[in-house]
Recover the amino acids of this structure.
């Protein structure tokens, strides 16, 4: 049973995981959907009520029914490196590839539907509330009057993009910033605006969850309490491994169950009382920088999750053993 | 409890359903996401562990928690009619709207995730097989050799686009066509190709399913047995109401359960033996033309599905009644 990694060529984070998979002897095929109809190819046959499919990438052929897991890391857009790329070819190739993979019994990190849903910040906030995570008071609105009333109740606010900032899309990386006390909210009418009560934080928390395993890292912000966006912070304090409070762990498990995610990178703000306030959960969040600074074995944990035998496979082995004893 | 219809302005099919909803006195709000930050607005507040959201459209305000159902008909792309449209505004508005709606307890026809998945033809074919529907032998491939071998086993083939032909995208409406006996499959390497055994059909079947209700229509093709794509057929034979064979009904129910769809328009080809061969299930398939020709009450059935009380609402009423008796 093979592990399929969907990612682009220059992905050193994927390389870190592949090293561990190779060391454990688990077959790995790496495929960039951008290579489709070039160095990547596919074929699937639906005959007599059954399906047999194959993918080929980098000269290796793998059966879709023989996939153990699929890791959707940083896949390129389908067929963009084809000889004659077009929107039509991208659509056809994407539908063919993901349509076949969706029929497989492989375990996904993360399933495309769960991944897509998980990108909706308003949905994240509601799921975090329901899971029992503390969520800073938040307003998403196009009504200037609603924004003004919210700012009266919560005078110390930050403003963020609703859609989050995706690492693959630099133009969208709008930093979180504080709202000036005399802000005029008239412009809210021209675009949905996310206002959130600012947490006076003493640390940023990055909690990386792989399956059931939680790896938390803490970065003190004591030197600069006004820093609001960790992604743009200076690197004075290093990330250090941290313990996850049991109540947070329970809530995070509930969140990931609800979100149907196998991997999630949570950002929390830790306040002076030690409360972890939920900011967001990025289903494709980077982990390389945390692993490097904390020494936490995130890549190895991902490799172990991907390498797990599929339920049917394990049961067969156990069954055979039982029959022999 | 209100019915929310997400659709564009000129949608006469939606009008047909609204007539029935109005007649039954169920509140309806119609919203085109394209109108966001113009004549449509939204606001949602996450405070103290709970969510309160509102939408405004055409001068009407509706609570998101007060939605009974959401009908995703033909929604425009978010914020494209805003004063200053941009990709960024579209993304922010789409995330805000659908992110909030996804948190609601409303019933969806159809849920965006289920709708998106349901558009994958390879996934449709596999689900149809698993549900027990007869599926014509099909190959989706970028390997010319696989195409040649398939054509040897099944000499009478049609070729179709993998991604289907979406009614909103005229450029994609590539008709299904027969494969010439001397076809050269070399070009298969340049784009995924869907080849399917041609069913010698005596009729086209359109089966419209709304919740548990099945409305089948039959259109004889006896005059032109070579016609392969009903969408491009001449209108000599009218659609007529038809019975659904019990085995097909069971399989269709299994399909829709697996697909998590509340609405689906199935296309079958009926062969000389009366077998219904699964061609596709369009989760947003048009039904106006079938209703007009057959007189089947599809719009009314959709209105009834949308108007159903939410489970909690019904339970409360029943509970109150029980307590009083």
């Amino acid at each position: 049973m093979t592990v399929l990694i969907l990612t682009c060529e220059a992905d050193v984070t994927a390389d870190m995981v592949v090293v561990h998979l190779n060391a454990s002897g688990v077959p790995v095929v790496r495929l960039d959907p951008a290579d489709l109809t070039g160095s990547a190819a596919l074929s699937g046959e639906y005959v007599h009520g059954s399906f047999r499919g194959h993918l080929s990438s980098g000269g290796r052929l793998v059966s879709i029914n023989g996939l153990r897991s699929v890791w959707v890391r940083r896949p390129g857009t389908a067929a963009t490196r084809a000889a004659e790329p077009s929107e039509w070819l991208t659509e056809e190739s994407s539908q063919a590839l993901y349509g076949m993979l969706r029929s497989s019994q492989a375990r996904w990190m993360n399933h495309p539907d769960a991944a897509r849903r998980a990108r909706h910040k308003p949905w994240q906030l509601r799921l975090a509330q329901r899971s029992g995570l503390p969520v800073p008071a938040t307003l998403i609105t196009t009504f200037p009057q609603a924004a003004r009333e919210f700012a009266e109740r919560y005078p110390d606010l930050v403003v963020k993009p609703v859609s989050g900032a995706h690492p693959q899309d630099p133009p969208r990386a709008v930093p979180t910033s504080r709202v000036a006390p005399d802000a005029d909210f008239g412009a809210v009418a021209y675009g949905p605006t996310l206002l959130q009560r600012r947490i006076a934080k003493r640390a940023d928390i990055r909690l990386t969850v792989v399956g059931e395993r939680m790896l938390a890292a803490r970065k003190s912000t004591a030197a600069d309490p006004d820093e609001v966006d960790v992604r743009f912070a200076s690197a004075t304090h290093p990330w250090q491994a941290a313990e996850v409070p049991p109540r947070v762990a329970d809530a995070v498990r509930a969140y990931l169950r609800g979100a149907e995610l196998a991997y999630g990178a949570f950002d929390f703000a830790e306040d002076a009382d030690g409360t972890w306030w939920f900011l967001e959960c990025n289903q494709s969040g980077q982990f390389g920088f945390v692993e490097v600074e904390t020494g936490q074995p995130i890549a190895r944990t991902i490799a172990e999750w991907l390498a797990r035998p599929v339920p049917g496979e394990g049961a067969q082995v156990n069954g055979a053993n039982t029959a022999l004893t």
